[in-house]
Amino acid sequence: MRIRRAIYLFSVIVSMACGSTRAQVSSAPGTGRGLPETIEAIDSARVTTRILYVTAHPDDESGAVLTYLARGQHADVALLSLTRGEGGQNALGPEQAPQLGLIRTQELLAATRGYGVKLYFTSAKDFGFSKTPEETEKIWGDQVLPISSSTAGAASTAVTGIIRLRES
To answer: How far apart are CA 27 and CA 33, in angstroms?
Structure first.
């Protein structure tokens, strides 16, 4: 009997508390926030996620990852290709060097439109494979990304510039 009475009193107290809270929070019908306004408030409170995806040259990116981030997660995504791919192989045609870089640039521009991302390039040259660091430095000169140096090369300066541009 005591247990029944305790349960009854507890339910009465809870009912009274809920009833009074509801009366304080509710607004008159049609005057409170509706679903569209609530969704808009939530969306405007969200933080924009910015992602800079860096590759050495075209065809190094993962289209699936970029599309997921940009279109699925609604992140502000940019792809930075350090080169235009002019040093790569071309199994489909005779174009080499600058002409190949132009073709690969156009292909990547079309692909990034599909991914939903912005595209940036640096001025670094793609010269194919090198066998030694000295060979790379001979071709790239001051564009080499420093590994242990405190002086930044042209490519790393360009990367820093893109990051700063995207922050603003």
So the answer is: 9
Contacts of 38 (CB under 8 A, 6+ apart): none
- The answer to whether residues 135 and 119 touch, using CB atoms and an 8 Å cutoff, is no
Burial class of residue 21 in the structure, from the number of CB atoms within 10 Å of its CB (0-12 exposed, 13-18 middle, 19+ buried): exposed
User: H or E element: which one contains 77?
Assistant: strand 76-81
Would you state the structure tokens that stand for residue 39, as one six-digit string? 């969704």
**46-79: pLDDT as tens digits:** 778 899 999 988 989 999 999 999 999 889 999 9
With 0-12 / 13-18 / 19 or more C-beta atoms within 10 angstroms meaning exposed / middle / buried, residue 102 is middle
Residue 20, classified by CB atoms within 10 Å of its CB into exposed (0-12), middle (13-18) or buried (19+), is exposed
Structure tokens at 140: 């790239």
Residue 30, token pair as written in the block: 């049609």
* Residue entry with tokens 């690969």: 104
Band of residue 142 on the pLDDT scale cut at 50, 70, 90: low
CB 110 within 8 A of CB 79: no
CATH for the 48-167 domain, from 3.40.50.10320, 1.10.472.10, 3.40.50.300, 3.40.50.2000: 3.40.50.10320
Which of 15, 21, 112 lies closest to 61 in space, CA to CA?
Answer: 112
